[in-house]
Amino acid sequence: MEKLIITACICGAEVTKEHNPAVPYTIEEIAREAKSAYDAGASVIHLHVRWDDGTPTQDSSRFQEAINAILEVCPDVIIQPSTGGAVGMSDEERLASLNVVPKPEFATLDCGTLNFGGDEIFVNTDNTIFNFARIMKERGIKPELEVFDKGMIDIALKADKQGLLVHPLHFDFVLGVQMSATLRDLVIMVGSIPHGSTWTACGIGRYAFDIAAGAIIMGGHVRIGFEDTIYLEKGVLAKSNGELVEKVARLAKFFGREIATPDEARRILSIK
Q1: What whole-number distance in Å separates Cα of residue 107 and Cα of residue 259?
Q2: Which CATH class is domain 6-269?
Q3: Burial 5-14 (b: 16+ CB within 10 A, else e)
Q4: Where are the domains of the chain?
Q5: What pLDDT digit, counting tens, does each position of 104-135 carry?
């Protein structure tokens, strides 16, 4: 099997310090959490940013500050800005995260509308998805195709048929939000993508390490971090993103997979 790429989703847009005091808001906290994850084995930092009070933002200057701070302490890490932002943001707001230097190598592309719970709906129309894909292709940014159920894979493949994506494709299966998070579900998702594609998987909340173990065994890659889970185990809050990444690294060692460095991850993902 290929070496394992670990992506650390260090803060997200929804989780707060009220959930876990270690969730980073400030630039200094974001850099600290990125470094803790990197030191534990993460080669990709999936990046949302906040204002100092915890309010999520897609402001390009805030992303630039965070990226500069992360590269200061992790100079070779892959930084993956989110174009998802937070519920209710406009397409224009969401795309602002790409307006940074150096140009992102990698960024997320959400491939469908999602029920987040209650009345919260994260809207991604076909036109939004295709436009984001077109912009990323024009700028030479590799998209990670974020899919929360099987139907979103099919929407991504519609974009591919229109020539908006470059092969090999890379998917992130986010399980436990709109689709349940079992090994059956993971097998369905993996069997639905084109041959030669790479994939990462994450389970939300209590499913995080079950899905991580499944992905490791099946030859995929793993996403972990405070965006997806705040617990190291039942009832035990993680003290850092590094603790979460370290647990995935231990699982990888148990199952006989080595951890990819950032440069090895670039090769596996075909990031130019």
Answers
A1: 21
A2: alpha beta
A3: bbbbbbbbbe
A4: 6-269
A5: 999 999 999 999 888 989 999 999 999 999 99
